[in-house]
Amino acid sequence: MNSILLITLIGAFLACSGPTDMEELELESTALSYRISQTEPYLNGVELFKQAAMGEQIKLRKQISELQVAIKRGNRNLLPQLESAQKKDNMIDLYKEDLTMIKMPKVPYPPRPPRGCFQDPNANCGIPKINLDGYSGIQVTEDMGEVSIQILDQKNRVVGKSGHVYRTKGGVSIIPIESGLKGNGVMRIRPNSRFFDKSVYLDIPVYKD
After folding, report:
1. In the chain, where the domains are located
2. What is the pLDDT, as a whole number, of residue 124?
3. CA distance 165 to 140
4. pTM
């Protein structure tokens, strides 16, 4: 009698707990698929442009360091190049400072450079390449102004470019990017900034599988 009662109680417990566990699993599964579907296929514009500016400064500061050494050795004819590089470096500093005042878009950051790259112009580690696979555009804010973007392949051919900024149903501003890039390339960013003239651009390494 006792064993029959015990079996009955176990059966009742399983009947009550089973569906609850299944419901929890279904909820977790639904939540996971929801999170995946909510992941936006956009790059973070502020962080991306900051890194492009940093990458340009890494190259510039290495060039400035080499020019200073050459000038000390007597190559005074390189002074105009040094002044031009220093001027561009200062302009990029101002642009970066301007970017820090902008509210960051709520999308993932691109890969960041290793610590120390920016401080040491001779570190030679540079900015990580950004995988463009799965991204259809760059999320920006109204404060960032107009930006022109080109994608160049390894032969310096233009294989992609930005379209006109549009707003999503959620009110987010997006710069669409279409590219036929295969393998390694460069994203060339021309910000419409009060600190730059039209000749200034920022390059960041990219690739597409």
Report:
1. 42-208
2. 54
3. 9
4. 0.69
In whole angstroms, what is the distance from residue 168 CA to residue 164 CA? 13
156 phi, psi to nearest 5 deg: 65, 25
CB distance 192 to 172 below 8 Å = no
What value does the mean pLDDT of the chain take?
76
What span, in angstroms and rounded, lies between the C-alpha atoms of 189 and 110?
Answer: 15
Q: Is 182 helix (H, G, I), strand (E, B) or coil?
A: coil
Question: Judging by DSSP bridges, how do beta strands 202-208 and 130-131 pair with one another?
Answer: parallel
Residue that wins the pLDDT comparison between 94 and 32: 94
Residue 191: C-alpha distances to residues 60, 92, 112, 203 (Å): 18, 11, 20, 11
Structure tokens belonging to residue 193: 């900034």
Tell me which H or E stretch contains 139.
strand 137-140
Is the pLDDT higher at 181 or at 126? 181
φ/ψ (deg, to 5) at 130: -105, 125
Query: In this model, does residue 116 exceed pLDDT 60?
Result: no
Cα–Cα distance between 186 and 157 in angstroms, integer?
10
